[in-house]
Amino acid sequence: xxEIAEGGGGGGGHKGGKKRAKKQSTRIDMTPMVDLAxxxxxFFVLTSTFSKAKVMSLVYPAKxxxxxxxxxxxxxxxxxxxxxxxxxxxxxxxxxxVGNPKGEPPTQLSETNFGPDGVRKLLADGNRYVxxxxxxxxxxxxxxxxxxxxxxxxxxxxxxDDRALKVLIKTDTKATCKNFIDLIDELKxxxxxxxxxxxxxxxxxxxxxxxxx
Amino acid sequence: MPKIKMPRSAPSIDMTPMVDLAxxxxxFFMLxxxxxxxxxxxxxxxxxxxxxxxxxxVIMVTVGExxxxxxxxxxxxxxxxxxxxxxxxxxxxxxxEQAENFLKMTSFGCRMADMPKYLDxxxxxxxxxxxxxxxxxxxxxxxxxxxxRDWISLGNSLAMKYGKDQYEExxxxxxxxxxxxxxxxxxxxxxxKALYVYAKNVIDIFRDLxxxxxxxxxxxxxxxxxxxxxxxxxx
Lengths: 213, 235
Description:
The complex is a heterodimer.
Chain A: H1 31-50, E1 54-59, E2 78-84, E3 87-92, E4 110-112, H2 116-126, H3 128-144, H4 148-160, E5 166-171, H5 177-189, E6 194-198, H6 202-212
Helix pairs in contact in A: 3-4
Chain B: H1 16-32, E1 47-48, E2 52-53, E3 58-63, E4 69-73, H2 76-90, H3 96-104, H4 115-120, H5 123-128, H6 147-173, E5 185-190, H7 196-208, E6 213-220
Helix pairs in contact in B: 2-3, 2-6
């Protein structure tokens, strides 16, 4: 590896002269130093790139004023997730309890999972409108050099469209933070803009208990 | 004609430039690295695809695995005033030295009544507090005096005040300074294994104060669709 110097620097022309005294090399074996330098280098490279904390933003809906009536909103394309310990249930559209006045069949919970075949596929199907529109927008942006601000504005409008999927998240008392963040993460992957974490209703809790027992 | 003799020498490379470069890089990474701050509780954060780096001005609430709550806020001026304001509100007096210790701390979790004692401890002792039976962190449930709510609301108004000053100062140098960069951001650092109800309790305090834009600290994991900004392919 390092240099084993034979003969000093002073030109190799003369051989077998009287210069016997200059046999000891002045060079130092640098191998250990280089080893250490690279060890430190590797350590700092690895630690400095991997330990940066990342944050995921989540905007909660503002709390309504105590005496303000919530306006009745028509839900077009919504899905409600109910998270419990390492399990995930969902139903689409509105919730109909047993014996509801509208005469709709009572809502049943379906089970899914956090894997790519479960919730990811479900969300990709439900949010097809946004995904297709985003692909079109990306194509346009690539062609016409769209400014970032317009791109962002269009994305927001797209996510708020009636055809875009809206998601409600309800958690029971056994759900862990990991379950919750995993679900939010999946929603971000599926480009879902409207995410509302809300409280679990008693009827839903009863359905959940029946499912998990 | 005599034969031309090749000078016999061991194969050698001059390593000096390589060593120079190696040390240059070592120096660079050593100086630019910022080490993880010592926290009073070990928190294993969940992972997500988000690539947003943690902002500079933050009000951070940490929720440990057992639901203990810790609080942290950035900015030396904000911290000093916040401790004084909280001391006034809860009738707790601090010595000069204790206030100095408060500036050096990162996250902390203790009741206001125990605060002077907590500030006299060393970092190691504070770390061990979590194992002490009866440890509560910062009281955050609505039934008892909700100290976390006071930390957040007082901290937020002080951070806004100092942020405004900093923004005006920055404006004189750079007319394009963005006001939002100087406002405190609200960070929630939750343990993966902590029950969501613990986090929800803290979230509800934020929402009660009308602070609805929260950020969760997460580890970076690979996005199944490539980079977060790249387009999603249809299956």
